Amino acid sequence: MRGVGGIVALLVLAAAAAFAGGAAAQTGGADPVMPDARVRQLLDQLKLKYSLTALKNYEVDFTLKDRRRQTVFVNSNTETFGRQELRQVTSTAFQVEGALPADTANRLLEDNDRRKLGAWRTVRDGGKTYVIYAVQIPAQTDPQTLEEAMDAARSTADAMEREVTGKDEF
């Protein structure tokens, strides 16, 4: 949610924790004390403006069609799966009070089947459930791959936000 960077930063961290806890073969990366310079270099090469969250993740705000806006987060922390070092690129679509209704959850699962890159996930924070589109990419990547991941996250999250809520909040 623009203007509430701390809450969204916590959501991104929570999403990263959910990603790390998904399988026994996965191990968590170290929490970043400093932002990952590899991300900064890629964002600079793409000539994108960004800010850092309290958790040292990169926050990039995009202006889309119809003057809609969508925020994308590129995590500084990484996770490993086997020999692969992975990074998350996320964008929040919407939030609901309490648990996500079953029909909405099923809708997201069905939408996941159509996606080539990334997937929907939910994060509970207090009494709210946040719906987040997340893309995992190699931590050591090139500008084009990062750009494609950010595009997938922002366009997918914004389309679902518009469809479900009709608002432009995230």
List keywords for this structure.
single chain, 170 residues, alpha+beta, Yope Regulator, Chain: A, 8-stranded antiparallel beta sheet, 4 helices, 8 strands, 36% helix, globular, disordered N terminus
Molecular structure report:
- The chain has helices at residues 5-20, 37-45, 102-114, 143-165, and strands spanning 26-28, 51-52, 58-63, 69-74, 79-81, 84-97, 119-125, 128-138.
- The protein is α+β, with helices and mostly antiparallel strands.
- The chain has one domain (5-165): Yope Regulator, Chain: A.
- Strands 1, 2, 3, 4, 5, 6, 7 and 8 form an eight-stranded antiparallel beta sheet that branches.
- The radius of gyration is 15 Å and the shape is globular.
- The termini are close together.
- The relative contact order is 0.19.
Topology:
Elements: H1 5-20, E1 26-28, H2 37-45, E2 51-52, E3 58-63, E4 69-74, E5 79-81, E6 84-97, H3 102-114, E7 119-125, E8 128-138, H4 143-165
Total number of domains: 1
- The value of Rg in angstroms is 15 Å
Q: Structural class of the helix and strand makeup?
A: alpha+beta
Kindly report the CATH topology. Yope Regulator, Chain: A
CATH architecture: 2-Layer Sandwich
* Mean of residue pLDDT values: 85
Order of helices and strands: HEHEEEEEHEEH
Our count of helices gives 4
The biggest beta sheet reads:
8 strands, antiparallel
- Terminus-to-terminus distance: 4 Å
Shape: globular
CATH class: Alpha Beta
In total, the number of strands is: 8
Offer a concise description of the structure:
With 170 residues, this protein is of the alpha+beta class. It has helices at residues 5-20, 37-45, 102-114, 143-165, and strands at residues 26-28, 51-52, 58-63, 69-74, 79-81, 84-97, 119-125, 128-138. A hairpin with a 5-residue loop joins strand 3 (58-63) and strand 4 (69-74).
